[in-house]
Design goal:
Strand content: over 45%
Strand order of the largest sheet: 1-9-2-3-12-11-10
Helix content: 10-25%
Radius of gyration: 16 Å
Number of helices: 4
Structural class: mainly beta
Order of helices and strands: EEEEEEHEEEEEEHHH
CATH class of one domain: Mainly Beta
Length: 174
């Protein structure tokens, strides 16, 4: 994320900063409040008998961090790994603690500030993902950015109950 530029739309309106990234043909955004760091894709250790959306775990300076294939989670198809593929490490709140979770994304775009008045409610037409995964659609320089509700997409309790896999293995990964 250090390389990403920050684009700010000037106005007196309130706004928030989002890390934007590509996933397939779409551009998504996640509030920077959740983003801990972004790393290149490497050294993901596979865990047997977990749901397909759990890519594995990484060692992040001695901490074991589960890695979710965001394409698999949203669309049911695995991400295609390339030179630009990254792991964004997010921190989510689970009860009283902050839990790190990595997500595999196609490529980081930039950090942008989106004014509240430039964010529309989730459109009625299908984005091909669950409605509760999207908190809105932002517009920056003629580009639409699907803003993800990471608390729902990466809900730890829901993820640990999906897939019919060995629940203890899923909980270990998460």
């Amino acid at each position: 994320m250090d390389d990403a530029s920050i684009v700010k739309e000037s106005s007196d309106a309130e706004g928030s900063q989002y890390l934007t990234f590509k996933l397939g043909d779409e551009i998504y955004g996640i509030s920077v409040d959740h983003v801990k760091e972004v790393n290149e894709f490497s050294n993901v250790y596979v865990i047997p008998r977990v749901p397909a959306f759990i890519k594995g775990v990484i060692n992040l300076r001695g901490e074991v961090v589960p890695v979710i294939d965001l394409s698999q989670r949203l669309y049911g198809r695995p991400i295609e790994i390339s030179k630009l593929t990254c792991i964004a490490v997010l921190e989510l709140k689970d009860e009283d603690e902050r839990v790190p979770i990595g997500i595999v994304i196609d490529a980081v775009k930039e950090v942008v500030e989106i004014r509240d008045d430039k964010i529309e409610a989730t459109p009625e037409f299908s984005l091909n993902i669950r409605d509760d995964f999207v908190s809105g659609v932002g517009k920056v320089r003629d580009t639409f950015i699907v803003l993800l509700n990471v608390e729902t997409v990466l809900n730890i309790h829901e993820l640990s109950q999906i897939g019919g896999a060995d629940e203890d293995r899923v909980r270990i990964a998460l």
